[in-house]
User: Fold these one by one.
Assistant:
Number 1:
Amino acid sequence: MRQVVIVGGGASGMMAAIMAAREGAFVTILEQKESVGKKILMTGNGRCNMTNTALPLSAGYPHEKQNFLERCFLQFDAHDTIRFFEELGMMTKKRGTLVYPITDYASTVREMLLMELKKEKVKIKCAEKVVAIEKKKSSWIIKTKGWQYEADSVILASGSKAAAQTGSDGSGYELARSLGLKVKKPLPALVPLKCRETMCQAFAGIRTYVRLRLAIDGKEVQKEEGELQWTEYGISGIVVFQVSANAVRALEQKKKTEVWIDLCPFVAKEEILQFLKKTMDFDEKKTAEEVLLGIFPKKMVLGLLKERKWNKSSPAKEYSQEEWSLFFENCKNKKLTVTGTKSFENAQICCGGVELFEVSAPTLESRRHKGLYLAGELLDIDGICGGYNLQWAWTSGYLCGIHAAKGK
Ligand SMILES: Cc1cc2nc3c(=O)[nH]c(=O)nc-3n(C[C@H](O)[C@H](O)[C@H](O)COP(=O)(O)OP(=O)(O)OC[C@H]3O[C@@H](n4cnc5c(N)ncnc54)[C@H](O)[C@@H]3O)c2cc1C
């Protein structure tokens, strides 16, 4: 019976363990926290957006990684994920193409995995931090603080540096480096962005539906639409997370990184101006503040007027059509200069990690070391929001588990 040791009991590690055990291996998970699957509980705001059925699946990841990913998804894709969990007894539901457990509780996903790990007699050792991995002639020695384990195959599934409170403290990168593997500098992604403009403080606390464009060195590279949250330091929300990976890579290369925001994406500027004219005609005494209150939230109205140095109590009619036109031009094209991101603690994932050329697709076995496999976020794969990061954890866990158990 082949001995498989898995370093890390997150989404990818648990999936790998189940698959390796199903293939007949004796499997041990070494997990440094007091329990496995902690990060799963935080996913999707506690609901776990576990995958995405949009086609092609690889479109949810950076362009240059799509070929690699397609080879992996051919073996295990979003539909396989849904089937896998349904076979464990969990019903799923969809919001558009986003898939969730029917309970809307991320804990259900974790419970299903725990049940299956038990059924497959996987040994789970918690509070066991792996500190070193050594290659012997035809086996591996995995060292924790107080013990050492021997295995025919090792699966490194120790996650990234994002949300370290769940256990992914970046130690997996060190283990990979100690084995000679190249690691691309990890950067926080799916993370709020810090911006220079004081407008953010004026708007802090407001949530608005916006259209957002990311420009790098003056060139538009990504467009998104959705709810944005204004904060003291900058901007947050899923619409921001979606552009954050591109933003963080640009910032790392010291490129000019800007976000352009349309605060009223549902209507054209001309339409707003006509509407405003009607409001003013209906009640000539209305102030600048009063005519805007039906278009933007109050805090935003006050911030916008202050920014343009307009008197909120002046009659709206005192400002010319041209001035109003400029006012709304600015609302539809608000520029924010991105100066940085929030920390790894506030990030959902990392971009960067063990370079993809270090592993063969689709086995995910190390090209340098036979019997070493890499799964999950530890590898240099980052998806957008929408279930893509967990899908990568399921797919890579599946592949590592199957191949580690077979030893090929
Ligand atoms: C707040 C939040 C919300 C998210 N929401 C979603 C979502 O809805 N959909 C989605 O697709 N993705 C989501 N993600 C991302 C997703 O959770 C991760 O991409 C995924 O869990 C990564 O799985 P993993 O197995 O690679 O790593 P992890 O789940 O981080 O697991 C790694 C495990 O390895 C252990 N470990 C690390 N080093 C060692 C060591 N030296 N020795 C022993 N054990 C070690 C850690 O303790 C941890 O348990 C979210 C992430 C966060 C933080």
Number 2:
Amino acid sequence: MHILILGAGVIGVTTAYELLKKGHEVSIIDRQPEPAMETSFGNAGLIAPGHSYAWTTPKLPGNLFKSIYQKKRAFRFKFQWDPAMWYWGIKFIRQCTIKNMTENTLRKHKLSSYSQVCFHQLVEETNIKYHENKKGLIYFFRSEESFFEGKQKLTMLKPMMSNLQILSRDELLQKEPALLESQSNIFGGIYCSSDESGSCRDFTLSLVDICRKMGAKFHFNTNVQSIKNDNQFVNRIEADKGSFQADQYVLACAAFSPIIAKMVGDYLPIYPVKGYSITVPIINHEKVPLHSGIDEDNMLAFSLMGDYLRFTSVAEISGYDTRHKPSDFKEIIDIAKSLFPSVCDFSRVEYWAGLRPMTPNGAPIFGKGRMDNLFFNTGHGHLGWTMCSGSAKITASLIEGQKPELDLEGMTLATT
Ligand SMILES: Cc1cc2nc3c(=O)[nH]c(=O)nc-3n(C[C@H](O)[C@H](O)[C@H](O)COP(=O)(O)OP(=O)(O)OC[C@H]3O[C@@H](n4cnc5c(N)ncnc54)[C@H](O)[C@@H]3O)c2cc1C
């Protein structure tokens, strides 16, 4: 079969790899000049089944409301007139009950854990290097109250993950001595030995080389503009560089997938949630943290990327604009400096912002809509790097008409 994948981020490229392994002919279109230039470019790099919590908690609506007048909140909302945002936003807020939060967390955890197993298999097959750090992740808290909430949240995942370990302040500092330098309050933490980190972009670039050797054809600088279809099938994709035809099609365009799905009459409940990251060169290797992790009170993730440390934060519902200015990063830089004061050269910061493709329940969308030959693999929100390999395997099974290894309840258009 010839399969055309729309989108060469980590999701599209891992899907290409799985399909090539099964002997299919694969082509990929992307509007960017290179792979992984959008959301997969500067993310936090955490592979974190141990942190696959739903964002839609009962507290979230109040926090979003407060963000209208308290601009510095990490989770924030900027008022706009976009009807797509309001339609999606209502669905998102409806998920903020204890029951939905628990169900959504368990669903995300199931996919994340499955995906991590598939990911390890892929890495073993390909021997890809991606600045991997397999020492486990640390999640730490600044106050008694936030630590208490963190431990409460943990009860959702604990039945499936016996290796989630609660650490007192002293135990945490013993595990992660780099935090001893920190000029901020640290109260306690949680350690997950099986969570890990690495560069999503480097991984995707290497996997593209492997896919090319396996016969995949990549078409970069190619923008999908319209779809020619009848009532049942996509007949061809029209792009600015010509027409593309295949037997089956995969939509993996992240926050832009709904715009393309709409061309064939499907509604995908995905909306962008903007995040910011800085990548900073390491100048003092002796003081570098051993683990990647999250400062929970500040929603700040930090991650080792070879000779660089990356810090990411902010979840901003503000539409499709990825523009940013250095002043947008002031809080991130201040917290990063206070955590690891002597590790990085903050005069050489690389700034980035990207759009998490969020669904209301936080899980991606698989399967088909109105077209029999258009498969969705999209909407991975804040965990697309964690979920990439499992999602690719699920999509390859669906295309071949086989039952995926995972139950897809809550992850198809019919069940969301
Ligand atoms: C700040 C931040 C931190 C994050 N941290 C983590 C983390 O620690 N762990 C984790 O698991 N996940 C994390 N994520 C989420 C993760 O980055 C995403 O879920 C993942 O990258 C999505 O991959 P994708 O391939 O779907 O999207 P993308 O990488 O955006 O790929 C989609 C591709 O589609 C292409 N495209 C779109 N429209 C068109 C069109 N019309 N024509 C042609 N091509 C088109 C784009 O050019 C793009 O290359 C984070 C995200 C952000 C923003």
